[in-house]
Design a protein that fits this description.
With 400 residues, this protein is α/β, with parallel strands linked by helices. The protein folds into 2 domains: 10-42 and 294-399, Aspartate Aminotransferase, domain 1; 45-290, Type I PLP-dependent aspartate aminotransferase-like (Major domain) (Aspartate Aminotransferase, domain 2). The protein has 14 helices and 12 strands. A 7-stranded mixed beta sheet has the order 2-8-7-6-5-3-4, with helices on both faces. A 3-stranded antiparallel beta sheet has the order 9-12-11. Helix 4 (98-109) runs parallel beside helix 5 (129-136) and helix 12 (293-314) runs parallel beside helix 14 (383-399). The radius of gyration is 21 Å and the shape is globular. The protein starts with 11 loop residues before the first helix and ends with a helix.
């Protein structure tokens, strides 16, 4: 067996099942799950109709590069959203959701033949795919703490100059999971300077880019930042998805865009990997990328939930509106001595609400686990359920 498999840690939801073993939730309350980042708003009917209308495509093998109409729709969306002029033939590839692409990308770009063990840098807390992708590519992950006292900015001093020289890939998540932090243009400028100095590739995970609260100030994208700074897309690839934007997590549809030379190699890898997008999904994806009305409605629903729930939870836990995304990243430091795992377990037992302990999202770096004593609350359920859950969280915390 691949020896790197032994390096993989249990996934956060596997840890959650172990944490909740033996817990009997209070039967007086209906279960409310705010632990998984799975959109629960209804899928727009026009997307389902387009999916059904594309079923005739099942009679043909799809190409890994995808149909021209899909790449053109993605290019047009990038032009509307970010003002980018991307070549749909060389700078865009459809992928089966950003998770699949984020993992396989590391397998493409990591070069273990340089006489040293490559490093893959990432935020901390982080999306665990980054770590697994690093290990299975024969690299070692390195975590740059994102601490609340620094407004969740990268702690670049986490790595020594010698370690920076070994970094081949840097995963960025903006808007961040779980913090909701959006990188500013100055943040990108610093990161680009490090990439220029050390030669590493930047993988910009932007799957939450369309869940934000100020229509006049949408989150900045990595490729957009490069354009604003007068740069090319060299060593930069962005990852996006329809899952959160269009409430279609089951379609597994997204794209990568950026450095044409890198995407040429990524296409080669994917051709052998056998991960072409199913024809009906491509047809439905074209329809989804071409429409913004349903995305605005989606944002309005999240905006309403955050406006209603954040003050309630903020009364008992240290939290605030995120820059973007659909998570509240809440610290339990207002309470008596209780850990994030104890809080999550007690909340389930007494009030039948599921949240995810923040320590499950992070690794210790420089003696600190930056997720410790936080919980991630995914406001993905209906407004009424989120309000109900927020009140239960408040009641539980007040009892502590």
């Amino acid at each position: 067996m691949n020896p790197h498999l032994a390096q993989l840690q249990p996934y956060p939801f596997e840890k959650l099942r172990a944490l909740f073993a033996g817990v009997t939730p209070n039967p007086q309350y209906k279960e409310i799950k705010l632990s998984i980042g799975e959109p629960q708003h209804p899928t727009p009917p026009f997307i389902m109709e387009a999916l059904a209308g594309g079923l005739k495509g099942l009679a043909s093998y799809p190409t890994t590069q995808g149909i021209p109409a899909l790449r053109q729709a993605i290019a047009a969306w990038n032009q509307r959203r970010y003002g980018l002029e991307l070549n749909p033939e060389t700078e865009i590839l459809p992928v089966n959701g950003s998770r699949e692409a984020l993992f396989s990308f590391a397998q493409t770009v990591i070069d273990p033949s340089r006489g040293y063990v490559p490093l893959v840098a990432s935020p901390n807390p982080f999306y665990q795919i980054y770590e697994g992708a690093a290990y299975l590519a024969g690299a070692e992950p390195r975590f740059l703490n994102n601490l609340p006292e620094n407004n969740f900015a990268f702690d670049y001093d986490t790595l020594s100059p010698e370690e920076w020289a070994r970094v081949q890939l840097f995963y960025v998540c903006s808007p961040g999971n779980p913090t909701g932090k959006v990188l500013s243009l100055d943040d990108w400028k610093t990161l680009f300077a490090l990439s220029d100095k050390y030669g590493f590739i930047i993988a910009s995970d932007e799957c939450y880019s369309e869940i934000f609260f100020d229509e006049a100030n949408p989150p900045l994208g990595g490729l957009q930042a490069a354009k604003l700074l007068g740069r090319s897309n060299e060593r930069l690839v962005a990852f996006s998805s329809l899952s959160k934007r269009s409430n279609v997590p089951g379609m597994r549809s997204g794209f990568v865009a950026g450095d044409a030379a890198i995407l040429k190699k990524f296409l080669l890898y994917r051709t052998y990997h056998g991960c072409a997008m199913a024809p009906p999904v491509q047809t439905a994806s074209v329809a989804a990328w071409n429409d913004e009305a349903h995305v605005l409605d989606n944002r309005n629903q999240y905006r309403e939930k955050f406006a209603a729930c954040t003050p309630l939870i903020g009364e008992v836990l240290s939290t605030a509106m995120p820059d973007a995304s659909f998570y509240l990243w809440a610290k339990v430091d207002k309470l008596a001595r209780i850990s994030d795992t104890e809080f999550a377990r007690g909340l389930l037992e007494h009030y039948n609400v599921t949240v995810l302990p923040g320590s499950f999202f992070a690794r210790e770096a420089n003696g600190v686990n930056p997720g410790a004593n936080f919980i991630r609350i995914a406001l993905v359920a209906s407004l009424s359920e989120c309000l109900d859950a927020s009140n239960r969280i408040r009641q539980f915390a007040q009892q502590l």
